[in-house]
Design goal:
The protein is α/β, with parallel strands linked by helices and 216 residues long. It has one domain: 3-Layer(aba) Sandwich (Rossmann fold), CATH 3.40.50. Helices cover 35% and strands 22% of the residues. The protein contains 7 helices and 9 strands, in the order βαββαββαβαααβαββ. It has a 5-stranded parallel beta sheet with strand order 6-7-8-3-9. A 4-stranded antiparallel beta sheet has the order 2-1-4-5. A hairpin with a 2-residue loop joins strand 4 and strand 5. Helix 4 runs parallel beside helix 6. The longest helix has 18 residues. It is globular.
Length: 216
């Protein structure tokens, strides 16, 4: 996949509320290109997390295209293929399994994809300062530690685009820099597009384009 195109997209929740929008994204024509790095800035309640999830939902007006394909017309099998090979998403709420260890959470994804070997995954744990938590239950870890586990999991698959919804909201500056470095290296190796959302604290990297979701 080379591009994601939004044409006059508007979440139903905004059209129903009658809010007046001042946005670079909603009700605009926007193209996200593979290989580019984007920051989506937002205030709370302006659709930041929805922006990521609309790749999988249908409660919006307008059209979203993957290259020249309207995503509403994609078959289930095509969605499965895209989710396995083209799109990776780090959710704000992480969606980890608290009853499993950090390592087990990552391996659920990697066992499906076979994309990374154990040595590479262990290196991520080491770089991100959670090697000692590898065999700890996720439910016993801090949210910042869980963010790093979810980030590692997001890397354990092929992708043309990776979406990261507030990926460093609970990380200190040093770990934020480390995560940024790993992300950019992985994206460069894959020639992938990076889309980061934030309501304030965001990755300190060079963005090719900054878009606002602000609503007034």
């Amino acid at each position: 996949m080379e591009r994601i195109i939004l044409k006059q997209v508007l979440p139903h929740v905004f059209s129903e509320s009658g809010d007046v929008l001042d946005s670079d994204v909603w009700k605009k024509d926007v193209t996200l290109e593979r290989g580019q790095v984007y920051l989506i800035e937002a205030a709370s309640g302006t659709g930041k997390s929805s922006f990521c999830s609309y790749l999988y939902r249908d409660d919006y007006s307008g059209q979203i295209y993957f290259d020249d394909q309207d995503i509403r017309r994609l078959s289930v099998s095509r969605w499965i293929d895209l989710r396995r090979h083209s799109l990776s998403l780090l959710f704000q709420e992480l969606r980890l399994f608290p009853e499993l260890t950090a390592w087990e959470n990552v391996m659920i994804k990697n066992n499906l994809t076979g994309y990374k070997n154990d040595k590479e995954i262990e290196a991520f744990f080491e770089q991100l300062g959670i090697a000692d938590k590898k065999n700890s239950l996720v439910g016993k870890m801090s949210f910042g530690q869980q963010q790093r586990v979810a980030f590692i999991r997001a890397l354990c698959q092929p992708f043309d685009f990776i979406f990261l919804d507030e990926p460093i909201s609970h990380l200190d500056e040093e770990n934020g820099h480390i995560l940024s470095s790993i992300l950019l290296k992985e994206a460069e190796n894959r020639e992938a597009g990076v889309i980061v959302t934030s309501i304030g604290k965001h990755l300190d990297i060079r963005y090719d384009k900054v878009l606002s979701l602000y609503s007034v």
